[in-house]
Amino acid sequence: MGMLIFRQLFDQESSTYTYLLGDSDTGAAVLIDPVFEQARRDTALLAELGLKLTAVLDTHCHADHVTSAWLLKQRTGADILIAANSGVEGADRYLRQGEHVQFGARYLEVRETPGHTNGCLSYVLDDESMAFTGDALLIRGCGRTDFQQG
């Protein structure tokens, strides 16, 4: 199993964290919660690190999160993955509890964590050293639950 390449990125305007995870041996990478306005930054970072984006994962689809998934798919050929009960059409794969998202020899395990939206997902790294919770659990708090479907 290759070493994990990890970057935490932040978009000031939307207060969104984006996470890049890559497998150093294969160069396969995933992006979690990419922001539309940051697609250029994200593709530049992938190129700088010599990574190939294989999948774009969103923790949720909601008015407070404008994803760049479709733009990144167009630019890189990466698959779009989102919760089966997100209500989103046009994704390449719809995820459910316990499924794995592979990137090289590494993987993320899918955990359904509804609350902020009905279709919220969290992703847990294969060695359980990291969890990516989107707006279900925030740094110093939890996500709002007073929106539609929240």
List keywords for this structure.
13% helix, 35% strand, mainly beta, Metallo-beta-lactamase, Chain A, 6-stranded mixed sheet, 4-stranded antiparallel sheet, single chain
Task: Give the structure's gist in a few sentences.
The chain has 150 residues and is mainly β. It has two helices and ten strands.
Layout: helices, strands, pairs:
Layout: E1 4-11, E2 16-23, E3 28-32, H1 39-49, E4 52-57, H2 69-76, E5 79-83, E6 93-95, E7 100-103, E8 106-112, E9 121-125, E10 131-132
Parallel strand pairs: 3-4, 4-5, 5-6
Antiparallel strand pairs: 1-2, 2-3, 7-8, 8-9, 9-10
- Classify the secondary structure makeup into a structural class: mainly beta
Quote the average pLDDT.
87
**CATH homologous superfamily grouping of the domain at 4-96:** Ribonuclease Z/Hydroxyacylglutathione hydrolase-like
Largest β-sheet summary: 6 strands, mixed
Shape annotation: globular
Q: Biggest sheet, strands in spatial order?
A: 1-2-3-4-5-6
Flag low-confidence runs.
none
Relative strand content? 35-45%
Distance between the termini: 38 Å
From the 3D structure, determine the CATH topology of the domain at 4-96: Metallo-beta-lactamase, Chain A
Q: Could you name the CATH class of the domain at 4-96? A: Alpha Beta
The ordered H/E elements are EEEHEHEEEEEE
Q: Radius of gyration over alpha carbons?
A: 14 Å
The CATH architecture of the domain at 4-96 comes to 4-Layer Sandwich
Helix content: 10-25%
Number of helices: 2
